[in-house]
Amino acid sequence: MNQTTGFLGAVVVLCAVGADSALAQTTGCSLRPAVSAQRQTLNCEPGLSITIERGASYQLTDRNRDGRVDAIVLNSKAALVDVDSGRIRGGFEVVTPQAIAAVRGTRWAVDAQRGKTSVLVLRGRVAVNKISTGEGVTLGQGQGVDVDRGRSPLSVTRWGQPRINALMGRLGQ
């Protein structure tokens, strides 16, 4: 199944992948041993690590069909993505019902809730585009944005430590 994302005209090829380690490995990802019942970590290749909150609804994708994961479609809960631009070519995207967050190399968290997606940058820069309007912003370290399905404009803010701690705690950080 193909889905056009609207972000740079990329085509997302969805691979049915969830928490099953055999399926994760077919996309080049392997599960790290569980440290907690609250999350799981996928090592997709040197330079790409994805920590996913337990119970999240997601799919790993290979947009360019080269056998490497280059995006995650996150429908619910949170994911922490760590991308080393020196090792991962072409960047990485997190696609949610409300937003597309894309980078070349950084560390950021995305929380997909009912009707809203929140993006927090921990290192580097992340471009976030609102699916409903195409509006985009670029976030730097410590900045976040909440994206809804409506037509309200995006507002970049510096997240307070309590909000950062709450999200990162869910991801074991």
TrEMBL record:
Top-level division of the source organism's lineage: Bacteria
Keyword terms: Signal
Keyword DNA repair: no
InterPro entries given in the database record: FecR
Signal peptide: 1-24
Pfam families: FecR
Occurrences of domain FecR protein (ranges): 38-126
Protein name: FecR domain-containing protein
Species name: Rhizobium mayense
Species classification: Bacteria, Pseudomonadati, Pseudomonadota, Alphaproteobacteria, Hyphomicrobiales
